[in-house]
Amino acid sequence: GFYGNLLLTQTPEHILTQTNNKTEILCELKKEHTGVYWYRWSPERQHFEFLVFSNKLGKATYGTNVSQDKFRVHEERSHSSYSLHISHLHPMDNGTYYCSVSQSSQLLLGSGTRLSVVDALPLPPKTTQTPVSKKPVPWITKSKAASRKGPCSPLVWIPLAAGVLLLLLGLVPTAHRLYRLRRRLWLRVHRQ
Q1: Residue 121 DSSP code
Q2: Helix count and strand count (H, E) for the chain
Q3: Is 60 exceeded by the pLDDT of residue 186?
Q4: In this structure, is residue 144 part of a structural domain?
Q5: Does residue 89 share a domain with residue 40?
Q6: Can the peptide bond before residue 154 be classed as cis, meaning omega within 30 degrees of 0?
Q7: N or C: which end of the chain has fewer CB within 10 A?
Q8: Cross-strand partners of 130
Q9: How many angstroms separate the CA atoms of 7 and 4, rounded?
Q10: Which of 118, 147, 175 is the last residue of a domain?
Q11: How far apart are CA 74 and CA 56, in angstroms?
């Protein structure tokens, strides 16, 4: 059992943040342990790097060339939860971070937290700051129709409207038949 997900829970799964920000990864442990190790897998460098080990007394041992200003481990009172704080973030810090404990000569890893550090966060699709009138109208309508995949998408409402229309057209003869039947019955009742 390389992955000890039953013994330790790591959150969140993914962090997207900006350069120079700071972030935190939480590791909750469900069994006795001597301390927590933190590792980083870097896809660019294709290498698994030891960052820091924090024992139960809160003493930290750092890996080679690992900055103590950048990485700090905070421990909760119960010894069952540790968090790795990473500051002065840079795209070089991208990678998957794992908390880990040693259990009977095995290294049990958390599920991993993928950290993505970008210089600028992607803008939300709808911006209220730019007035719509400045942009050419055909471009807006085209892009909106193409990019909209919500409940108002033409792909949804055109077939829906066609279906409703067909349903209504199908009901016309039925409604007419019912009207004639009612009239016939009414006439028959009133004749007697």
Answers
A1: P
A2: 2, 11
A3: yes
A4: no
A5: yes
A6: no
A7: C
A8: none
A9: 5
A10: 118
A11: 11
Full-prediction pTM beyond 0.70?
Answer: no
How many domains in the chain? 2
Q: Is residue 139 part of a domain?
A: no
The pLDDT tens digits for 57-89 are: 889 999 999 999 999 999 876 768 899 999 999
Helix/strand/coil for 98:
strand
Backbone CA torsion sign across 77, 24, 60, 112: positive
Residues 6+ apart with CB under 8 A from 158: none
By residue range, what is the domain housing residue 24? 8-118
The amino acid at residue 170 is: G
First-to-final CA distance of the chain = 90
Q: Are residues 95 and 161 in the same domain?
A: no
Task: Pick the more confident residue, 116 or 153.
Answer: 116
Q: Are residues 34 and 112 in the same domain?
A: yes
State which H helix or E strand residue 85 sits in.
strand 81-86
